[in-house]
Protein backbone atom coordinates (compact mmCIF):
# COMPACT_ATOMS: atom_id res chain seq x y z
CA UNK A 1 0.00 0.00 0.00
CA UNK A 2 1.98 2.96 -1.29
CA UNK A 3 1.70 6.46 0.03
CA UNK A 4 2.94 9.23 2.26
CA UNK A 5 2.65 9.00 6.01
CA UNK A 6 3.07 11.73 8.57
CA UNK A 7 3.32 11.29 12.28
CA UNK A 8 2.09 12.17 14.73
CA UNK A 9 -1.33 13.45 13.66
CA UNK A 10 -1.45 15.84 16.63
CA UNK A 11 1.56 17.28 18.44
CA UNK A 12 1.73 19.57 21.43
CA UNK A 13 4.83 21.53 22.30
CA UNK A 14 5.81 23.75 25.15
CA UNK A 15 7.39 27.08 24.34
CA UNK A 16 11.17 26.79 23.99
CA UNK A 17 11.15 23.14 22.89
CA UNK A 18 12.25 21.74 19.57
CA UNK A 19 9.97 19.14 17.98
CA UNK A 20 10.44 16.90 14.95
CA UNK A 21 7.68 15.98 12.53
CA UNK A 22 8.04 12.78 10.59
CA UNK A 23 7.35 12.29 6.87
CA UNK A 24 7.88 8.97 5.12
CA UNK A 25 7.04 7.89 1.57
CA UNK A 26 7.28 4.51 -0.16
CA UNK A 27 6.49 5.83 -3.63
CA UNK A 28 10.16 5.90 -4.70
CA UNK A 29 9.86 9.65 -5.27
CA UNK A 30 13.02 11.72 -5.50
CA UNK A 31 11.53 15.07 -4.40
CA UNK A 32 9.90 15.92 -1.09
CA UNK A 33 8.38 19.10 0.34
CA UNK A 34 7.18 20.67 3.59
CA UNK A 35 4.37 23.21 3.70
CA UNK A 36 2.75 25.15 6.47
CA UNK A 37 -0.97 25.91 6.37
CA UNK A 38 -2.65 28.62 8.43
CA UNK A 39 -6.37 29.47 8.16
CA UNK A 40 -7.02 31.64 5.12
CA UNK A 41 -3.35 31.63 4.13
CA UNK A 42 -3.20 28.71 1.75
CA UNK A 43 0.03 26.70 1.64
CA UNK A 44 3.45 28.21 2.25
CA UNK A 45 6.62 26.34 1.35
CA UNK A 46 9.09 25.75 4.19
CA UNK A 47 11.74 23.50 2.64
CA UNK A 48 12.05 21.19 -0.33
CA UNK A 49 14.47 18.52 -1.42
CA UNK A 50 15.14 17.40 -4.98
CA UNK A 51 17.30 14.45 -4.02
CA UNK A 52 18.94 12.72 -1.08
CA UNK A 53 21.43 14.87 0.85
CA UNK A 54 20.19 18.06 -0.80
CA UNK A 55 17.54 20.58 0.23
CA UNK A 56 16.60 24.21 -0.37
CA UNK A 57 14.86 26.85 1.70
CA UNK A 58 11.33 27.81 0.86
CA UNK A 59 9.61 31.12 1.50
CA UNK A 60 9.34 30.65 5.29
CA UNK A 61 12.37 28.57 6.32
CA UNK A 62 13.33 30.67 9.35
CA UNK A 63 12.97 28.69 12.58
CA UNK A 64 12.81 25.33 10.79
CA UNK A 65 15.41 22.72 9.82
CA UNK A 66 15.31 19.55 7.73
CA UNK A 67 17.48 16.61 6.75
CA UNK A 68 17.33 14.19 3.83
CA UNK A 69 19.57 11.26 4.67
CA UNK A 70 17.30 8.67 3.05
CA UNK A 71 15.15 8.86 -0.05
CA UNK A 72 12.07 7.76 1.89
CA UNK A 73 12.33 10.22 4.76
CA UNK A 74 12.25 14.02 5.11
CA UNK A 75 11.84 15.01 8.78
CA UNK A 76 11.09 18.60 9.75
CA UNK A 77 12.31 20.11 13.01
CA UNK A 78 10.46 23.09 14.40
CA UNK A 79 12.96 24.92 16.57
CA UNK A 80 12.41 27.29 19.46
CA UNK A 81 13.42 30.10 17.09
CA UNK A 82 10.11 29.74 15.22
CA UNK A 83 8.01 32.52 16.73
CA UNK A 84 4.55 31.24 15.88
CA UNK A 85 4.72 27.50 15.21
CA UNK A 86 1.07 26.60 15.82
CA UNK A 87 -0.18 25.46 12.40
CA UNK A 88 -1.06 22.48 10.21
CA UNK A 89 2.03 20.98 8.54
CA UNK A 90 1.81 19.12 5.25
CA UNK A 91 4.44 16.95 3.62
CA UNK A 92 4.36 16.11 -0.08
CA UNK A 93 6.43 14.23 -2.61
CA UNK A 94 6.80 14.05 -6.39
CA UNK A 95 8.62 11.72 -8.77
CA UNK A 96 11.05 14.48 -9.64
CA UNK A 97 11.28 18.25 -9.38
CA UNK A 98 11.74 20.71 -12.17
CA UNK A 99 11.13 18.73 -15.33
CA UNK A 100 8.01 20.77 -15.99
CA UNK A 101 5.97 17.68 -16.72
CA UNK A 102 3.55 15.35 -15.05
CA UNK A 103 6.35 13.89 -12.93
CA UNK A 104 6.34 17.16 -10.96
CA UNK A 105 2.84 16.41 -9.64
CA UNK A 106 2.86 16.54 -5.85
CA UNK A 107 1.08 14.04 -3.62
CA UNK A 108 0.33 14.92 -0.03
CA UNK A 109 0.39 13.20 3.33
CA UNK A 110 -2.43 13.51 5.89
CA UNK A 111 -0.77 16.34 7.85
CA UNK A 112 0.35 17.02 11.42
CA UNK A 113 -1.34 19.64 13.57
CA UNK A 114 1.16 21.29 15.90
CA UNK A 115 -0.04 23.30 18.85
CA UNK A 116 2.23 25.31 21.14
CA UNK A 117 1.01 25.42 24.72
CA UNK B 1 6.88 36.21 -7.36
CA UNK B 2 4.17 34.30 -9.13
CA UNK B 3 0.67 34.37 -7.71
CA UNK B 4 -2.50 32.31 -8.06
CA UNK B 5 -5.84 33.95 -7.22
CA UNK B 6 -9.09 32.29 -6.15
CA UNK B 7 -12.24 33.53 -4.51
CA UNK B 8 -12.37 32.37 -0.89
CA UNK B 9 -15.96 31.12 -0.58
CA UNK B 10 -18.67 29.51 -2.69
CA UNK B 11 -22.06 28.28 -1.52
CA UNK B 12 -24.37 26.10 -3.63
CA UNK B 13 -27.43 23.92 -3.15
CA UNK B 14 -27.21 20.15 -3.38
CA UNK B 15 -27.83 19.00 -6.94
CA UNK B 16 -26.71 22.29 -8.52
CA UNK B 17 -23.44 22.74 -10.41
CA UNK B 18 -20.50 24.44 -8.72
CA UNK B 19 -17.94 26.48 -10.62
CA UNK B 20 -14.69 27.40 -8.91
CA UNK B 21 -12.48 29.90 -10.70
CA UNK B 22 -8.76 30.57 -10.60
CA UNK B 23 -6.34 32.94 -12.33
CA UNK B 24 -2.62 32.27 -12.60
CA UNK B 25 0.34 34.32 -13.75
CA UNK B 26 2.95 32.15 -15.46
CA UNK B 27 2.01 31.78 -19.12
CA UNK B 28 4.62 29.06 -19.52
CA UNK B 29 3.09 26.78 -16.88
CA UNK B 30 2.84 23.27 -18.28
CA UNK B 31 0.40 21.71 -15.84
CA UNK B 32 -2.41 23.19 -13.77
CA UNK B 33 -3.93 21.31 -10.86
CA UNK B 34 -7.01 21.10 -8.69
CA UNK B 35 -6.65 19.67 -5.19
CA UNK B 36 -9.39 18.99 -2.62
CA UNK B 37 -8.91 19.29 1.13
CA UNK B 38 -11.47 17.94 3.58
CA UNK B 39 -11.42 19.19 7.19
CA UNK B 40 -8.33 18.08 9.10
CA UNK B 41 -6.92 16.17 6.14
CA UNK B 42 -4.16 16.54 3.58
CA UNK B 43 -4.62 17.65 -0.02
CA UNK B 44 -6.03 15.12 -2.45
CA UNK B 45 -5.20 15.49 -6.13
CA UNK B 46 -8.53 15.80 -7.95
CA UNK B 47 -7.48 16.42 -11.49
CA UNK B 48 -4.98 18.27 -13.64
CA UNK B 49 -4.84 19.67 -17.15
CA UNK B 50 -1.94 19.98 -19.53
CA UNK B 51 -1.46 23.44 -20.93
CA UNK B 52 -2.11 22.42 -24.56
CA UNK B 53 -5.67 21.36 -23.67
CA UNK B 54 -8.77 23.55 -23.41
CA UNK B 55 -10.95 21.13 -21.52
CA UNK B 56 -10.74 17.93 -19.54
CA UNK B 57 -13.71 15.94 -18.26
CA UNK B 58 -13.59 13.27 -15.59
CA UNK B 59 -17.00 12.00 -14.44
CA UNK B 60 -18.65 14.93 -12.59
CA UNK B 61 -15.59 17.16 -12.93
CA UNK B 62 -14.91 19.45 -15.89
CA UNK B 63 -11.79 21.59 -16.08
CA UNK B 64 -11.69 24.51 -18.49
CA UNK B 65 -8.47 26.32 -19.37
CA UNK B 66 -8.27 29.70 -21.08
CA UNK B 67 -4.58 30.27 -21.68
CA UNK B 68 -5.07 33.71 -23.22
CA UNK B 69 -6.68 35.01 -20.04
CA UNK B 70 -4.70 32.65 -17.73
CA UNK B 71 -7.98 31.44 -16.29
CA UNK B 72 -8.74 27.99 -14.97
CA UNK B 73 -12.07 26.71 -13.73
CA UNK B 74 -13.39 23.57 -12.09
CA UNK B 75 -17.02 22.64 -12.60
CA UNK B 76 -18.59 20.03 -10.34
CA UNK B 77 -21.87 18.69 -11.72
CA UNK B 78 -24.68 17.53 -9.41
CA UNK B 79 -22.86 18.81 -6.33
CA UNK B 80 -23.30 16.65 -3.24
CA UNK B 81 -22.81 17.41 0.46
CA UNK B 82 -19.70 15.22 0.33
CA UNK B 83 -18.17 17.76 -2.06
CA UNK B 84 -18.01 20.32 0.76
CA UNK B 85 -14.30 21.04 1.15
CA UNK B 86 -11.59 23.54 0.28
CA UNK B 87 -10.45 23.43 -3.34
CA UNK B 88 -6.95 24.59 -4.27
CA UNK B 89 -5.79 25.61 -7.70
CA UNK B 90 -2.04 25.27 -8.42
CA UNK B 91 0.26 26.04 -11.33
CA UNK B 92 3.51 24.26 -12.15
CA UNK B 93 6.19 26.87 -12.84
CA UNK B 94 8.27 25.92 -15.84
CA UNK B 95 11.16 28.09 -14.69
CA UNK B 96 11.11 27.61 -10.97
CA UNK B 97 13.90 28.53 -8.66
CA UNK B 98 14.66 29.82 -5.24
CA UNK B 99 12.19 29.90 -2.40
CA UNK B 100 8.96 29.45 -4.36
CA UNK B 101 9.57 25.86 -5.40
CA UNK B 102 7.79 24.64 -8.50
CA UNK B 103 4.09 24.51 -7.52
CA UNK B 104 2.32 27.76 -6.66
CA UNK B 105 -0.97 27.34 -4.81
CA UNK B 106 -3.93 29.64 -4.51
CA UNK B 107 -5.36 30.27 -1.04
CA UNK B 108 -8.23 27.90 -1.64
CA UNK B 109 -11.98 28.21 -2.21
CA UNK B 110 -14.19 26.86 0.54
CA UNK B 111 -17.20 25.16 -1.04
CA UNK B 112 -20.29 24.80 1.14
CA UNK B 113 -23.08 22.59 -0.14
CA UNK B 114 -26.51 23.16 1.40
CA UNK B 115 -29.07 20.33 1.43
Could you outline the blueprint of secondary structure elements for this entry?
The complex is a heterodimer of chains A (117) and B (115).
Chain A: E1 4-7, E2 10-13, E3 19-25, E4 31-38, E5 42-51, E6 54-57, E7 64-66, E8 76-78, E9 87-94, E10 107-108, E11 112-116
Chain B: E1 5-6, E2 9-13, E3 18-23, E4 31-37, E5 43-50, E6 55-58, E7 61-66, E8 71-76, E9 85-92, E10 103-105, E11 109-114
Parallel strand pairs in B: 2-11
Antiparallel strand pairs in B: 1-3, 3-8, 4-5, 4-9, 6-7, 7-8, 9-10, 9-11
Report on this model:
The complex is a heterodimer of chains A (117) and B (115). Chain A has strands at residues 4-7, 10-13, 19-25, 31-38, 42-51, 54-57, 64-66, 76-78, 87-94, 107-108, 112-116. Chain A has 117 residues and is mainly β. In chain A, strands 2, 4, 5, 6, 9, 10 and 11 form a seven-stranded mixed beta sheet that branches. A four-stranded antiparallel beta sheet of chain A has the order 1-3-8-7, with no helix packed on it. In chain A, a hairpin with a 2-residue loop joins strand 5 and strand 6 (54-57). Chain A is globular. The N and C termini of chain A lie far apart (35 Å). The model of chain A has no long low-confidence stretch (mean pLDDT 93). With 115 residues, chain B is an all-beta fold. Chain B is globular, with a radius of gyration of 14 Å. In chain B, a hairpin with a 5-residue loop joins strand 4 (31-37) and strand 5. In chain B, strands 2, 4, 5, 9, 10 and 11 form a six-stranded mixed beta sheet that branches. Chain B has a five-stranded antiparallel beta sheet with strand order 1-3-8-7-6, with no helix packed on it. Chain B has strands spanning 5-6, 9-13, 18-23, 31-37, 43-50, 55-58, 61-66, 71-76, 85-92, 103-105, 109-114. Classes of the chains: A mainly beta (117), B mainly beta (115). Chain A binds chain B through residues 4, 6, 33, 40-43, 45, 48, 56-59, 61, 90, 92, 97-98, 100-102, 104-111, 113, and chain B through 8, 30-31, 33, 35, 40-45, 48, 50, 88, 92, 94, 96, 98-103, 105-108.
Amino acid sequence: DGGITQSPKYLFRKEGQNVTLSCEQNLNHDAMYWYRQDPGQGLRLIYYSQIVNDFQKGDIAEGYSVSREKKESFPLTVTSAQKNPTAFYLCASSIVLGHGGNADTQYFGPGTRLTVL
Amino acid sequence: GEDVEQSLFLSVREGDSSVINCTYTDSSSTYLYWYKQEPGAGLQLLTYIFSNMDMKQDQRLTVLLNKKDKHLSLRIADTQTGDSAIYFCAENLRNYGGSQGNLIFGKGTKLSVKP
